[in-house]
């Protein structure tokens, strides 16, 4: 990385800047970015899903949250970059402390949201530091930058999505009328893919088409994608629903929209700052509010929910094969983390409905399991030793839906401490699974249910308990989840993860994750909601301190395991079926 940082610093002087911001995000603010937009990895080596580099002429920082405080220094040249934990020091504070009064720091306005820049300006302005929108300096030095993605577009039928594009657009126009907005601008790929019932292959692990959309209250929406993707069959399938336009024309069309002088809705939490600038300077009245597609998308219809159940069933078969194989081979002490990833993905690919894994598999043995978002590489790959805990977090994108599951497995004798911590995590997962709550309840209110048993002994985990999951879309979607930051009311049809954990740095990690769907409870006269557990994979009984489970918890786990066996046993060969029978035996 030193030559790249040196080249950037040379261009800082030429541009009259004292520093430059390099975010992880691309123009679409997605968790995954195509190779051509992986600027943070290019300049720093860090490949996590969130982060910001601040590079000055003689100082630099890589700002990451608590998930990546172990990964960041392992991937980054710490002689160049100071690793800053944003849970204790915000990027703006670091900038104020490390740049002189009068400094000018550049940023690409297509890669930062208005909220991001406003937060940085609050502290930097007090220190006399200016943030200035400029052309991207990383792009200027990235001479071998990969080409943009050119994967095909697929238009889905209502038999897979449950609702037609026409119906979704009709609902959206009703929302625009209700909110007195003349148009809405979309920049999030998952919103666009859901609204127009399209999928693509533009980013790893997510079936996204990267693009933009402008939907007016009246008239045909404009959908902006790469010209290379546009085919006659796409135009025919979307005829009457969208005018297909080249993505390169989005900025011009945005300016034209602004010139109409109407009220334009955009999401300041996800849209680039440049969208706001073009609209405001062009004469539009701005309506800054949450993307109006996020909530309808999160509330899956019956077809989507059935597809998610089908995806979980298919995934459960692959997981059972994997766990049976793991139990046979792990005690030999020959498995590496990469071996485990390859074998798990091979089992998933036996299913013809698998499109892709839903994220890069987390395969953490022993101490690597304590790195929350650990990604194994040839450099970090280690051999799993008998007696160590093994944490595997993985998922699949199936034609019918998306999966995400974490299991922690024993490979030999386990300590009482490991059993205690595992069981407290399990109790938290069960507490969420069994929760019944009134309508209007948020994930922030439920989060304590998962943490309470760890809190009792002074322990916790530094990540959310659950996130939203898309229906053959992003494995991480908003606006609802289970964590203090999720203040959106939980509603029927939402699919969330349920994944408490515990991490002993340098020793082991424990996480258990099932997907759950929100449904109306049979009690409470329709005023209460509860969860349906979708995931169908055994939980390692060897790691459970049975005496810590109460009667209701034991009954829940026994019923869960009985359901697992009943659903998938017949799809396994005899050896794996016998393994499953033992793994799901009642406590």
Automatic annotation (TrEMBL):
Pfam families membership: Creatinase_N (PF01321), Creatinase_N_2 (PF16189), Peptidase_M24 (PF00557), Peptidase_M24_C (PF16188)
Domain Peptidase M24 C-terminal stretches: 527-587
Domain Creatinase N-terminal, first and last residues per copy: 4-140
Peptidase M24 domain mapped to chain residues: 306-519
One Gene Ontology term of the molecular function aspect: metalloaminopeptidase activity
UniProt GO cellular component terms: cytoplasm
Sorted UniProt keywords: Aminopeptidase, Hydrolase, Metal-binding, Protease
Family, similarity comment: Belongs to the peptidase M24B family.
Protein name: Aminopeptidase
Organism: Pelagibacterium lentulum
């Amino acid at each position: 990385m030193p030559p790249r940082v040196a080249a950037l610093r040379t261009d800082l002087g030429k541009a009259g800047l004292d520093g430059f911001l390099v975010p992880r995000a691309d123009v679409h603010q997605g968790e995954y970015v195509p190779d051509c937009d992986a600027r943070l990895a290019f300049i720093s080596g860090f490949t996590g899903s969130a982060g910001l580099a601040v590079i000055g002429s003689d100082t630099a920082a890589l700002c990451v949250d608590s998930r990546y405080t172990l990964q960041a220094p392992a991937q980054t040249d710490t002689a160049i970059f100071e690793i800053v934990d944003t849970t204790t020091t915000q990027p703006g504070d670091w900038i104020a402390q490390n740049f002189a009064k009068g400094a000018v720091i550049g940023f690409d306005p297509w890669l930062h949201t208005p909220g991001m820049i406003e937060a940085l300006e609050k502290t930097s302005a007090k220190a006399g530091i200016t943030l200035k929108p400029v052309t991207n300096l990383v792009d200027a030095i990235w001479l071998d930058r990969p080409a943009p993605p050119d994967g095909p577009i697929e238009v889905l039928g209502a038999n897979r999505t449950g609702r037609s594009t026409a119906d979704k657009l009709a609902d959206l126009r009703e929302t625009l009328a209700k909110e007195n907005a003349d148009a809405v601008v979309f920049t999030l790929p998952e919103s666009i893919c859901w609204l127009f019932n399209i999928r693509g292959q533009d980013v790893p692990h997510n079936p996204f088409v990267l693009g933009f959309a402008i939907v007016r209250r009246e008239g045909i929406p404009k959908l902006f994608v790469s010209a290379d993707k546009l085919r006659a069959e796409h135009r025919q399938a979307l005829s009457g629903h969208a005018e297909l336009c080249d993505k390169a024309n989005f900025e011009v069309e945005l300016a034209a929209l602004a010139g109409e002088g109407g009220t334009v809705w955009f999401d300041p939490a996800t849209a680039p700052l440049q969208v706001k600038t073009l609209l405001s300077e062009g004469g539009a009245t701005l309506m800054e509010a949450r993307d109006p597609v996020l909530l309808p998308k999160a509330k899956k219809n019956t077809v989507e929910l059935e597809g998610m159940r089908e995806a979980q069933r298919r995934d459960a078969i692959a997981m059972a094969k994997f766990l049976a194989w793991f139990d046979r081979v792990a005690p030999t002490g020959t498995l590496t983390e990469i071996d485990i990833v390859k074998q798990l993905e091979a089992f998933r690919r036996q299913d013809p409905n698998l499109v892709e894994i839903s994220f890069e598999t987390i395969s953490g043995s022993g101490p690597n399991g304590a790195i929350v978002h650990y990604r194994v590489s040839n450099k970090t790959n280690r051999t799993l030793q008998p007696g160590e805990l093994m944490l595997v977090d993985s998922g699949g994108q199936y034609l019918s839906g998306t999966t995400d599951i974490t299991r922690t497995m024993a490979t030999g004798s386990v300590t009482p401490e490991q059993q205690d911590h595992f069981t407290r995590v399990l109790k938290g997962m069960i507490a969420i699974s069994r929760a019944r709550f009134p309508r209007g309840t948020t994930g922030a209110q439920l989060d304590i249910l998962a943490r309470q048993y760890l809190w009792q002994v002074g322990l916790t985990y530094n990540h959310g308990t659950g996130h939203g999951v898309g229906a053959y879309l992003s494995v991480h979607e908003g606006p609802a989840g289970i964590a203090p930051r999720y203040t959106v009311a939980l509603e029927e049809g939402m699919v969330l993860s349920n994944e408490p954990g515990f991490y002993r740095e340098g020793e082991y990690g424990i996480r258990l994750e099932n997907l759950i769907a929100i449904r109306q409870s049979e009690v409470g006269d329709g005023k209460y909601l509860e969860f349906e557990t979708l995931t169908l994979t055994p939980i390692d009984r060897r790691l459970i301190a049975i005496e810590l489970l109460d009667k209701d918890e034991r009954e829940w786990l026994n019923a869960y395991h009985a359901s697992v066996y009943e659903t998938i046993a017949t799809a396994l060969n005899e050896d794996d079926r016998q393994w499953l029978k033992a793994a799901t035996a009642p406590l």
